[in-house]
Amino acid sequence: MGIRNSAKALIFQDGNLLAIKKQDKDGFYYILPGGGQEHGETLHETLRRECIEEINALVDIGDLLFIREYIGRNHERAEFDSGVHQIEYMFLCNIKKDNKDIRNGIVPDDGQIGVEWLPIPDLISYRLYPQELRKYIMDYKTGISKNTTVYLGDIN
């Protein structure tokens, strides 16, 4: 299995982060909107398509903020993800002004049960994956770190 590229959206509004809501045996958890790059797509094209499919929104794409590598065999889901090696490019995005109906899109993510705005000051209390990302988001939004690109490594 090869390395898969993925584009993710960091969408902030009124002190909140937009996330996809899922559920497993341990309760609710959250991921960023976005997904796998298809052959022939740019990362921006991927992200626009994924946001329509998952959160019913057209987005404007800004700076690349974070790059995360995920090597499944190194993390708690190794029994399911041992063959996964993914590089995620996380872009700052804004929902286009005419989009008011943020909800599950036309092709929700597997297991997606909703879309939710998470308060940034409380991110640590949410199961947002990758969990290590929560502190980077909080630092970015509070001005502690304004790096435009941060390679986060193999985190979950």
Q: How would you characterize this protein structure?
A:
Strands 1, 2, 3, 4, 5, 6, 7, 8 and 9 form a 9-stranded mixed sheet that branches. The protein has one domain: Nucleoside Triphosphate Pyrophosphohydrolase, CATH 3.90.79.10. The protein has 3 helices and 9 strands. The radius of gyration is 15 Å and the shape is globular. The relative contact order is 0.26. The protein is an alpha/beta fold.
Shape: globular
Order of helices and strands: EEEEHEHEEEHE
How many strand segments?
9
Kindly, what is the distance between the CA atoms of the first and last residues, rounded to a whole number of angstroms? 20 Å
CATH architecture: Alpha-Beta Complex
Annotated CATH homologous superfamily? Nucleoside Triphosphate Pyrophosphohydrolase
The assigned structural class equals: alpha/beta
Domain Nudix hydrolase: 2-141
Keywords: Hydrolase
Cofactor: Mg(2+)
GO molecular function, one term: hydrolase activity
Short description:
It contains three helices and nine strands, in the order ββββαβαβββαβ.
List keywords for this structure.
156 residues, Nucleoside Triphosphate Pyrophosphohydrolase, alpha/beta, 9 strands
Question: Topology, pairings included?
Answer:
Blueprint: E1 4-13, E2 16-24, E3 27-31, E4 34-36, H1 43-55, E5 59-71, H2 78-81, E6 85-95, E7 112-119, E8 128-129, H3 133-142, E9 150-154
Parallel strand pairs: 1-6, 3-8, 5-9
Antiparallel strand pairs: 1-2, 1-4, 2-3, 2-7, 5-6
